[in-house]
Each structure stands twice: as structure tokens, then as C-alpha cells.
């Protein structure tokens, strides 16, 4: 099916665009009252994510309501550990929890490489329904967690400020760590390929906990596996977002992917120098700017667009939108990107 708005895909591939495409990480979710309504009609997040018709509905809400240039499939990065044999719970107001964890070599017997069609069929079905209902309005983004971030949850068993158990394992059980990272990587490649076969137009890898590793360990235990994923996925453009990995930007410039996500601590001009000219950059407005006035949001968004200039860029926040953000403020961000980038790009030509 021909897309009516393919700005995101063209920007990812480095082609000319009339204006900068814009979407928000975590756009499908609690910032929208319409989401909360659907969410309240079921037992919780997991049931919602596992009901393809409802997952498709909340995936499309931000396209209708916020006017973003892409939909991202409603799911979670933690479906991979579940498909590998470690189920998760979503504890209200606290986040994910794994009753079983991996800490040592023998624990690897509890898990397997995911059987994607069988165990994640509900995500693939949600993608198919979403594609049909979007009817080519905007591209659909598929996603997965980066192996290191998934490892961190599987070992730690929950979110954490330090992920000290996961970090300890890199020293105490490095071989088991590599085995687990390898299994996650294989599962993730199968999963992303299945999402693409089901209709995802582009995929993003989230390394949310990149920033807690020292640079040498980041290279050995994270980038190595992200690089395998990038090499395996050639069907659609790939985006890598590694939160806090400011020290790895130069290495990320060598990844076999189209787009690198920046968080809001990463300087834009410095990132362009480090990453080089051959990648699209995505980001990176501070999500807290959306707590400011409409005037402040407009000014900060314009400043960001000026800094990215006429180079390859997809506008986004520097991390997921905070759940208590007012949706009207998100619209100010989206509208400002659309209007101001169109003006910048016509002036520059
Ligand atoms: C680390 C991570 C997770 N999940 C995700 C990441 C990587 C991105 C990031 O760094 O933010 C990714 C994710 N999670 C969700 C999406 C859906 C699509 C989107 O709108 O971006 C995506 C892309 C839905 C979700 N995932 C979750 C919710 C909230 C559940 C609810 O409705 O109560 C949603 C909408 C739950 C979740 N899931 C996770 C946590 C820590 C939590 C609890 C805290 C929180 O709510 O943010 C793990």
C-alpha cells in the first residue's frame, strides 16, 4: 500500500523532505484521556497489549488526536523476556516486575530463544489490524528493546536506579551474560523481522539503560549486539536510541542503521560531528519543556530545529513523553515543528 505521508521514511533514508517529520516516544499512552478510557475497560496494561483490536485503537489515537507523522505499535519491550520464558507483571504506579530472574549459568535452562509466531502472535496481529485501519495515512513504527536493556530487566527483575544486580553479573558471570545477550539478540532479530513482515515500515531499538555502563563495557555488552541486529535488518530503516550513551556517539556512527536517536543531554552540533553526515538524527527536545507555556514550547522547539538545520532530522523528544503532560502542550510541539520546519526548508532551498 502506498503511504500518503511518508515523510518519516524519506527523512530516515536521507531523502529530501518538505518539512521535518515529528512523532513522540511513548506517544500512545497515559497522556491521552482517550487512552485511559480504553485502558480502564480492561484489567490492565498487559490485557490491553494482548488484545489486538484495542492495541490497534490506542496505536492510532495519537495520529488522530496529536497529528504526529507516525504511529508506533502499542506494546512493550518486555514482551521479549516473556516470550523467552520469563513472564512479567505490570504493577500499578510502580512498573514492571519479573517473579523469576536470571542470575547464573544454570538459570539459562529456564529460557529459550523466543518462538515469535507462537508467543508474540498478538503483536503481529495488532500490527496487521493497525496497518489496515491506518490505510496508509502515516508509517507504522515497530520496536524492540536493545539486548542490554532487556538483559537488565531479566537479571534485576524490576526497574532500578542502579541495576546493580545486572551490572554485577557482567563481572561475576561474564560468559553467562554473553550467552543471555546472544539469546536475546536472536529473539529480537526474529521479532523485528516478524514485525516487518506483518507491516512495520521502520523499526526502533530502545537502549533505555545504555547510560549506566562505562564506555568499554557498553561496547562489549551492548553495542556489539545492537550491531548484530542492525546487520540483520535490511528490509526497512532502523533507528537506534541509546539513552545516556553520549560516549558512544562516534561508534554509533559506524552502525549499519539509518537513524540515531539523541537524548536531551546530547548537544546537537556535537552529535552531528561525532556521528558524521551519513545518518539521520532523531530527537531531542527535553520532555520537561512540555510543562512550560505554549510560548516557551514554541521557542524551545524553534531553537532545536535551528540547531539541526537543514540536515537529516526527525523531530522527537529526548526520551518518552512524561505521563502527566497535557496533550494540548504536545500539540503545540507538533504544530511548531510542522510550521517552522516547512518555513526553514523553503528558505534554505
Ligand atoms: C524501558 C521501556 C519499557 N517500555 C518501553 C521502554 C523503552 C523506552 C523508554 O525508555 O521509555 C517501550 C514502550 N512501552 C510502551 C510503548 C508503546 C508505544 C509508545 O507509545 O511509544 C513503548 C515503545 C507502552 C507502555 N509501557 C508501559 C506503559 C504504562 C502502562 C499503563 O498503561 O499503566 C505503557 C503505555 C509500562 C512500562 N514499560 C516499561 C516500564 C519501565 C514501564 C512502567 C513505567 C511507565 O509506565 O513508563 C519498560
UniProtKB/TrEMBL annotation:
Substrate binds at residues 26-30, 76, 153, 208, 319. Keywords: Cytoplasm, Decarboxylase, Lyase, Porphyrin biosynthesis. The record marks 76 as: Transition state stabilizer. Residues 21-30, 141-157 form the Uroporphyrinogen decarboxylase (URO-D) domain. It comes from the Bacteria. Pathway: Porphyrin-containing compound metabolism; protoporphyrin-IX biosynthesis; coproporphyrinogen-III from 5-aminolevulinate: step 4/4. Pfam families: URO-D. It catalyses: uroporphyrinogen III + 4 H(+) = coproporphyrinogen III + 4 CO2. Its main location: cytoplasm. Its EC number is 4.1.1.37. It is found in: Cytoplasm. One of its GO terms (molecular function) is uroporphyrinogen decarboxylase activity. Belongs to the uroporphyrinogen decarboxylase family. Homodimer. Catalyzes the decarboxylation of four acetate groups of uroporphyrinogen-III to yield coproporphyrinogen-III. NCBIfam families: hemE. This is Uroporphyrinogen decarboxylase. It comes from Echinicola jeungdonensis.
